[in-house]
Amino acid sequence: MKFTKMHGIGNDYVYVDCFQETVPNPQEAAKFISDRHFGVGSDGLVLIRPSETADFEMAMYNADGSRGEMCGNAIRCVAKYVYENHLTDKTHISVETLAGIKYLDLAIEGGAVSRVHVNMGKPELAAEKIPVQHPMQQVVGQPIDVCGTQYQMTCVSMGNPHCVVFTDDIDSLDIEKIGPMFEHHKLFPNRVNTEFVKVLSQDKIQMRVWERGSGETLACGTGACAAVVASILNGYTKDSVTVQLRGGMLDIEWDQKGGCIYMAGPAAKVFEGEVFLPGCC
Hints:
4 helices; globular
């Protein structure tokens, strides 16, 4: 199977052009190919497919083989791939995801995609739709007990569930211990992505993320959007925020009048290759 390794500020995936390739068992393929010792090494697998409702479809699988609804960093890489591999000559494209159709604007420099601006849609704040099992209709600044420690959480869905926790102790955070405890907490029936956020100013935050099905990643686009929504709802920031992640920066804006979240950031190609998938196909 031919593939392309790409990343959005360090959130890396293996991309397969399913206009040319077939992946019969993507769940097992994702687990094999994501392994950083025996596979290619990535946060997951992304299949670029034809779509009946949009220009392209993005099917995204986490490193544990579970299907992800949406990934903001991955979708920017999809835009770079389809343009630079001549699957489209448009600089405004639509991509079908499990979280709905997303609309992307591509910035071109020297024939290559340098930056992608994505309409990420409207954040979902209703607890039952995130989902989070909580008596409040919206979970903003509410307590959650994890490993005997009480945190304040704000829950948001960006097509996938997020739990945002604000803390001043972000660099020394034992995320390998507490991340799985949040992910599998009884309040989250579909598990959850968890963002640990430090507010630096009214227009900048720092974030680490534990991604459902993948563990800590260097960046998470939907998580950055959820973190900005949470920061605004808790009164910490303005509507336009730069998010500092371990892999780089994303610019996020919440247009509260229109309701949509907009994300802008880079996408990068690492290398191309071909791999045999033992027992997967």
